[in-house]
């Protein structure tokens, strides 16, 4: 009987559940999309029950496939997107939808919250800058605006905690996801007492902290009952793990719906002066400084919805336009802040700008300018990390952008660095499977895991394009700097 591992990545727009053999070679993958709820300004929610049902559907499908193939399933290990929040009542029923990382309603909370962050060194303890993406701001927003829901809150949990509870009847949160909540003291690995006191909530309203290797037996659904469930971690840390970017100077980038660049460290890395980066955890002893942008593929989806709705070959057109349109998109610039911005400026008020538009521009230039704008924002993160780490000449890339070779070349040129793509398509799910194998004692640690991790694509920067993009990047930053004050002012016009 063949032994297999299952890694399941609960993302913002879909769940991807992957079957791996014992050498971590992908055997099969099942995906299930779910709908983002955004009926109001700054709203970005998921229906937690829809997400749960989607997860169960993919899990049951792969388990059935394993049973039909006479495979022995060793475990199911989870990853999930960071920064999500659901409020549940005393009966464990959701009082809210799941607020995702893209939900920015909390940017307008009132009072002295920002001053509290600064005066109490919250960033230095939690590794999370002041921003509406994190749970402290979201919790405070409900306290100020939805008092009835806040007063009924039995627990504040993430989407992974919601799913694990329904499968095991246990409320547990791993250090990895907890570190992305903004509520965890990453130095002592405990919930931050000062922050909880300011918010007016208690530790009992948060889940039990466990390591990423914590294992339960599934108690729910007939097909899954009795299978070992490994709690796993957050998608960013597990993406780095799945890409085997284990050294302290190995940068791993994810560019999908949003984007991020991260690097492992054996100690906390904090930019106390600028607070340009965050610092999360993989496990109790492994830190992950990095930065993230809100606006990656979500910008391309917006363009498709508004300008290419009927185009079945939309993503082929993107590749074509990147190749056809000259570097710099004929002096057209796209600041891609459709959902505010995170690193390195942490500006939830940031909004999109199309600059330099003239009569000779078309949809071709608009698309390439958007791709360039997203890529410039990724470079800002690279530079912020390099300021607190070592210089990076090589970036391991994963995410949806790896489906576009022209975009990957454009990234290499804008980064002025080698871009590597490994053959595994789902780095996050693979990272979850690696955690599961360690949790069950199959391997001792990350470095003891041996499998063929081949480089599928290696792209070197084109010197001429890199030089041109360096000039354009400086102008892109100038555009942002000169319009910062207008973002806030525009909200009150």
UniProtKB/TrEMBL annotation:
Protein name: Gluconokinase
Domain Carbohydrate kinase FGGY N-terminal: 4-242
Occurrences of domain Carbohydrate kinase FGGY C-terminal (ranges): 252-440
Record has Kinase as a keyword: yes
PANTHER family: GLUCONOKINASE (PTHR43095:SF2), SUGAR KINASE (PTHR43095)
Keywords, sorted A to Z: Kinase, Transferase
Source domain of life: Bacteria
Keyword Cytoplasm: no
UniProt-listed InterPro entries: ATPase_NBD, Carb_kinase_FGGY, Carb_kinase_FGGY_CS, FGGY_C, FGGY_Carb_Kinase, FGGY_N
Matches recorded under Gene3D superfamilies: 3.30.420.40
Gene Ontology molecular functions: kinase activity; phosphotransferase activity, alcohol group as acceptor
CDD domains (UniProt xref): ASKHA_NBD_FGGY_GntK (cd07770)
Single Gene Ontology BP annotation: carbohydrate metabolic process
Family, as annotated: Belongs to the FGGY kinase family.
Organism of provenance: Halonatronomonas betaini
């Amino acid at each position: 009987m063949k032994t297999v591992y299952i890694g399941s990545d609960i993302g913002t727009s879909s769940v991807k559940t992957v079957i791996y053999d014992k050498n971590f070679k992908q055997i099969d993958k099942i995906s299930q999309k779910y709908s983002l709820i955004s009926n109001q300004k700054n709203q970005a929610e998921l229906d937690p029950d829809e997400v749960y049902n989607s997860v169960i559907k993919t899990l049951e499908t792969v388990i059935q496939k394993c049973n039909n193939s006479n495979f022995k399933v060793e475990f199911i290990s989870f990853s999930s997107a960071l920064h999500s929040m659901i409020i549940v009542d005393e009966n464990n029923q959701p009082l809210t939808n799941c607020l995702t990382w893209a939900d920015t309603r909390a940017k307008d909370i009132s009072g002295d919250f920002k001053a509290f962050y600064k005066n109490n060194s919250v960033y230095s303890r939690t590794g999370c800058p002041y921003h509406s993406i994190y749970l402290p701001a979201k919790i405070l927003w409900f306290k100020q605006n939805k008092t009835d829901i806040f007063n009924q809150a039995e627990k504040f949990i993430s989407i992974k905690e919601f799913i694990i509870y329904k499968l095991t009847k246990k409320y547990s949160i791993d250090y990895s996801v907890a570190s992305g909540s903004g509520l965890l003291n990453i130095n002592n690995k405990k919930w931050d007492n000062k922050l909880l006191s300011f918010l007016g909530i208690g530790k009992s309203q948060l889940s039990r902290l466990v390591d990423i290797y914590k294992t339960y037996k599934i108690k729910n659904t007939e097909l899954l009952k009795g299978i070992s469930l490994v709690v796993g971690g957050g998608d960013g840390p597990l993406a780095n793990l799945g890409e085997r970017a284990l050294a302290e100077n190995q940068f791993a980038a994810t560019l999908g719906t949003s984007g991020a660049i991260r690097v492992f460290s054996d100690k906390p890395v904090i930019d106390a002066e600028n607070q340009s980066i965050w610092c999360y955890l993989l496990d109790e002893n492994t830190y992950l400084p990095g930065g993230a942008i809100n606006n990656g593929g979500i910008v391309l989806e917006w363009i498709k919805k508004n300008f290419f709705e009927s185009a079945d070959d939309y993503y082929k057109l993107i590749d074509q336009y990147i190749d056809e349109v000259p570097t710099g998109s004929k002096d057209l610039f796209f600041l891609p802040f459709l959902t505010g911005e995170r690193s390195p400026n942490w500006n939830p008020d940031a909004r999109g700008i199309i600059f330099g538009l003239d009569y000779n521009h078309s949809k071709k230039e608009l698309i390439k300018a958007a791709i360039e704008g997203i890529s410039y924002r990724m470079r800002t993160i690279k530079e912020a990390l390099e300021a607190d780490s070592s210089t990076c000449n090589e970036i391991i890339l994963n995410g949806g952008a790896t489906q576009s070779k022209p975009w990957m070349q454009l990234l290499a040129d804008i980064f002025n660095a080698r871009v590597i793509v490994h053959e595994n398509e789902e780095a996050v799910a693979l990272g979850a499977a690696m955690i599961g194998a360690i949790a069950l004692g199959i391997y001792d640690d990350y470095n003891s895991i041996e499998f063929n991790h081949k480089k599928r694509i290696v792209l070197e920067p084109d010197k001429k394009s890199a030089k041109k993009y360096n000039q354009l990047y400086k102008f892109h930053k100038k555009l942002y700097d000169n319009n910062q004050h207008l973002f806030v002012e525009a909200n009150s016009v």
